[in-house]
Structures are given as C-alpha cells and as structure tokens.
C-alpha cells in the first residue's frame, strides 16, 4: 500500500487511479494529519511502503498554504513529490521555490540520466504550475528538464526521495504510468498485478445498502447514469424507478434513446418528466455561467422533489456521479472550486432520500469498461459524454429558444460530419459553442452581423487533461460551410485549439 498526501490538486485521485491500475492499494491523508494516519496504519499492521505527495493550487510561501508534518520526511520511507508536493519537500529540506517559468499544458521532457529506465528519454509531459524549484536542497540532483524548468525531475543521493514538476498521473503525460510503476515497484518494493473491475462486488454493495427499499434513479441517457442505473437495476430489480427529466437542453433524439435503453434494455418502468418550458423560464435573463448551472441544478432538484413525493416508499436517489464530477466540484479539502457540477450539488435535507452513487469513485474510462463487462452495447458505452446542464453551458450569454435551436442544429451537423469522416469515436467530445461574439459576413451580397460559432473537439481518456483533436482540414471546411449556410444567424466558425489545462473542456 502507498500513502498519498493530498495538497488539493485536481488530479490527486488520478494518482490513486493509476496505482489501482497497477494493483496497489492506496490510502489518503492531508499534510497535517499524515503522521497520525501513518501511526494508525502502522498500529493496524498496514504500514505504507512509500509516500506520494500530490500537487496543489497553492504556492509554498503563501500564507495558509498546506504544509506537512516533518515526521513524514523523517519516516525514512521512499517519497515521490509531484508539483506542489515536490516544491514543499524542497522548501522543507532547504531548497528555494520561486514564481518563475509558468508552464500550463504539454512540454517536452528530456532525461539527462535515465533514472526511471524508460524506453525513450525525450517525451511529452503535462505541466500545470506557476512556481518551480530554483535551488535544490542538499543531496538532490536534477536528471530531467524541460525548455524552461531545469529541475523538472530530481532524485536524492539516497535514491529514496524523488521530485517531479510535471504530473505523471495524467493520461497525456507519456510514460507517466511507467514512472509511477518504477517508483512503486523498484523503489518502494510493491508487487505489481493487474486490477480488474468487479461489477459483482459493486452490485452486492448496493444490495446490502438498499435492502428492499425503492431507488429513484436520475437518468440522462449518458454512459454514467446508464451504467449506474444498470448496476442498481441488477441489484434490486423492479425496485429501480428510473426518471428522466426532459429539460430540452440535451442533444436531438436524447429522449427517444433514453426510452429505448430503459424500456428495452433494462426493462424498467421509466418515468419521463416533460419540463422544457420550466427550464427555459428558469434560464430567462441568466448570463453568468455559475448562475446558469445553479439555476439548472436547483430546478432539477425541485423536479425530483415533486417526483419523490409521488413515491413516498422510495428511500434512495441513485445518480451516475463519477469521480471527475466530484473533484471538480471541490471533492478534496484543498482543491480549488472550478465549476459547480449540478449533479453533485447536494440534495436539500427535506428530500429525505439518501444519495446512492455506485460509480462515484470511478473515472470515465473505468465506467466504460464496467459498462462493457455488464454487457451494454458498445455504441452506448462509447457515446460521447454530455454535460448535465446541456447546451445551456455551450451558449455564452442568455439561453433563448432561438439560440438553443441554433446550438442544436450546429451540433447535429458536427456529429453527422464527424461520424461520416470516421472521427466521432476518436474524439472524447465534439460540439459547437455559441460564443456570444459577433462578426461581419456577406451572405447573398448583403452584409450580416451575426454570431461566431466555435467548434470544440478534443481527445481525452480521464477528463482531467485533453488535447484538441487533429481534424483534417477538409472535415473542418465541411463543418464550417454547413454551419454558416444551414444554421440561421451565424457569420463565422472558428476552431478552438486550447489544451486542458489550462482551458476547461466546456467554455462555461
Ligand atoms: P470541463 O469543462 O470541466 O469538463 O473541463 C469536464 C467534463 O465534464 C463535463 N461537464 C459537466 N458534466 N455536469 C455534468 O454532468 C456539469 O455541470 C458539467 N460541466 C462540465 C464536460 O462536458 C466534460 O466532459
């Protein structure tokens, strides 16, 4: 088992996810309670074999920045510091951290010494930092660097302390898993094995918790809520009550797909709540992204309360929340709040339903794998994720029925063309954004001043990092021509070429 000390990085849980992939157990602690957690684990005969210090949003010299008990360093255990974790370790051991060389996104890492025994010594890693270690503490030497950061990977002469400025845990850091594996296996002495997701275990946990109570299940037709509802259905049969709220903010054809999945594949008594006009009313005049999310989340919960009242016998509300939803809504104590994801907004006390989130600890790729193991159709499992607040967060400014229609029409064109070009499955998500910016165009000899639509398409596996997709020019051209010609009041199409980090996938 390895101990992860969490300083609030958006990707802390991914470190655990990667280690789980290698068959390694993980415990989490805060910097302040790490020594106590280690003591407790030792007492239970479960001492960790090494420690990983996560990244975090703070700066080590900042007032109130998270720190850690010196006992962690004095424990003599192997330590790998990642980003903030490395900076904090350097500061405590007498090094110097400065706000220099900001790097956000992909960087080429060159190893001067092949300490991690990789098959390639020049590769891409993902960076997300404003500070870096400019003076190494005594006994450390750098063995890999980027264009700007000399001390991008370091090792202590004891060969037990390591520090990396980049994030090996994210999918877009090449050889990241290999580096974590090297640390876990060769330095900490962990035994590596293959981890298998076990739906039987999840189903039996649901059974134990729910008993013979009924579960209202919020479904959207997306992978997460379908897999969650499927697991719940397998555990409790007809006591599953799936409810689909038709907000009108989803992709064309979603309601029909939901009907098919829940009546044909899961054979449940699906309830469809028609609520399009209520959502439009709640969004009237709202332009602020957070306000939009809150308005949608509030109404969604309200509708559930109404449904719940019709089923006083229900004891639980099932949801397809996954880990990236949780972490981006401040799932970890020290993390920054990036966006309020409506599906983890919390339920008001008076609802008196317990929350049942069977896939809360899983990442998207794990949920897909689970769906496959459960026998859900590949087309359903591989469908692109679609955010709960739907097109509302892809329309900058006020959501009006007319703009919603424009967004849906542009979206249909993008999906058609991406599928035609065989690219749909190769991107994580692709969609239009009504940018709220206006530009001039000439249509049929007349000047029009109309909205700019942005196309966003990117690759990602774990949602925490992404790269914009390399779409052939001809496909971009076809999408652009079709949107400008077929969608009313659009003057221009632009392609968004920003990685995550720093940009989030959605514009709002
Ligand atoms: P961001 O924009 O945060 O998106 O990089 C990460 C992933 O989350 C989706 N997303 C949401 N999903 N409710 C959801 O169910 C939300 O409020 C929400 N906001 C973003 C987004 O589409 C992407 O897949």
3D architecture notes:
There is one protein chain. This protein is an alpha/beta fold and 508 residues long. The protein has three domains: 2-187, Class I glutamine amidotransferase (GATase) domain (Rossmann fold, 3-Layer(aba) Sandwich); 199-381, 3-Layer(aba) Sandwich (Rossmann fold), CATH 3.40.50; 400-496, GMP Synthetase, Chain A, domain 3. Helix content is 33%, strand content 23%. It is built from 15 helices and 20 strands. The protein has helices spanning 12-21, 34-43, 70-74, 84-92, 176-187, 199-210, 223-236, 254-265, 276-283, 289-310, 323-328, 364-374, 378-381, 401-420, 473-486; strands spanning 2-6, 26-30, 50-53, 79-82, 96-98, 103-111, 122-129, 132-135, 140-145, 153-156, 161-164, 214-218, 240-246, 271-274, 314-318, 354-356, 429-443, 446-459, 467-468, 490-495. It has a nine-stranded mixed β-sheet with strand order 2-1-3-4-11-10-9-6-7, sandwiched between helices. The protein has a five-stranded parallel β-sheet with strand order 14-13-12-15-16, with helices on both faces. Helix 6 packs across helix 7, helix 7 (223-236) crosses helix 12 (364-374) and helix 9 runs antiparallel to helix 10. The model has no long low-confidence stretch (mean pLDDT 91). Bound molecules: xanthosine-5'-monophosphate.
Structure summarized in a few sentences:
The chain is α/β, with parallel strands linked by helices.
Low-confidence stretches: none
CATH architecture of the largest domain: 3-Layer(aba) Sandwich
CATH superfamily of the largest domain: Class I glutamine amidotransferase (GATase) domain
Radius of gyration: 24 Å
- Give the distinct bound molecules: xanthosine-5'-monophosphate
- In percent terms, what proportion of residues is strand? 15-25%
Number of strands: 20
Mean pLDDT: 91
Count the helices. How many?
A: 15
Say what the CATH topology of the largest domain is: Rossmann fold
């Amino acid at each position: 088992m390895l101990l992860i000390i969490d300083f609030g990085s958006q990707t802390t849980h991914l470190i655990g996810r990667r280690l789980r992939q290698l068959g390694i157990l993980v415990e989490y602690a805060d910097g302040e309670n790490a020594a106590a957690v280690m003591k407790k684990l030792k007492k239970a005969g479960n001492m960790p074999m090494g420690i990983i210090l996560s990244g975090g949003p703070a700066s080590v010299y900042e007032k109130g920045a998270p720190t850690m008990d010196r006992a962690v360093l004095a424990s003599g255990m192997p330590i790998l510091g990642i980003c903030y974790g490395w900076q904090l370790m350097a500061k405590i051991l007498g090094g110097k951290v400065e706000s220099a060389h900001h790097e956000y996104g992909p960087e080429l890492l060159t190893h001067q010494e092949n300490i991690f025994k990789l098959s390639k010594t020049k590769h891409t890693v993902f960076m997300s930092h404003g500070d870096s270690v400019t003076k190494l503490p005594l006994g450390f030497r750098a063995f890999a660097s980027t264009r700007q950061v000399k001390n991008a990977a370091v090792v202590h002469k004891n060969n037990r302390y390591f520090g990396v400025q980049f994030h090996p845990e994210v999918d877009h850091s090449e050889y990241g898993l290999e580096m974590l594996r090297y640390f876990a296996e060769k330095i900490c002495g962990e035994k590596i094995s293959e981890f298998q997701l076990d739906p039987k275990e999840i189903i039996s946990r649901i059974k134990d918790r729910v008993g013979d109570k009924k579960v209202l299940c919020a479904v959207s037709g997306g992978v997460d809520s379908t897999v969650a509802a499927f697991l719940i259905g397998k555990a409790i049969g007809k006591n599953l009550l799936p409810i689909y709220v038709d907000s009108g903010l989803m992709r064309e054809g979603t309601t029909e797909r939901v009907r098919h999945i829940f009546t044909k594949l899961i054979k449940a008594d699906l309830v469809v709540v028609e609520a399009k006009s209520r959502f439009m009313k709640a969004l009237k005049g709202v332009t602020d992204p957070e306000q939009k999310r809150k308005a949608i989340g509030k109404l969604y919960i309200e509708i559930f309360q109404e449904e719940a009242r019709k089923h006083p016998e229900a004891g639980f509300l099932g949801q397809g929340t996954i880990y990236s939803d949780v972490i981006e809504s401040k799932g970890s104590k020290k993390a920054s709040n990036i966006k309020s994801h409506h599906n983890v907004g919390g339920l008001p006390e008076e609802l008196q339903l317990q929350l049942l989130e069977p896939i809360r600890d899983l990442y998207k790729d794990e949920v897909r794998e689970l769906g496959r193991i459960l026998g859900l159709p590949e087309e359903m499992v591989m469908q692109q994720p679609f955010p709960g607040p739907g097109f509302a967060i892809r329309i900058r400014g006020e959501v009006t029925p007319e703009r919603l229609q424009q967004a849906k029409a542009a979206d249909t064109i993008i999906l058609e063309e991406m599928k035609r070009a065989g690219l749909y499955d190769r991107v994580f998500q692709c969609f239009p954004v009504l940018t709220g910016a206006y530009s001039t165009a000439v249509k049929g000899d007349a000047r029009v001043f109309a909205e700019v639509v942005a196309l966003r398409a990117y690759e990602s596996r774990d949602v925490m990092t992404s790269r914009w997709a390399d779409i052939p020019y001809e496909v971009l051209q076809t999408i652009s021509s079709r949107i400008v010609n077929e969608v009313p009041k659009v003057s221009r199409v632009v392609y968004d070429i920003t990685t995550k980090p720093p940009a989030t996938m959605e514009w709002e």
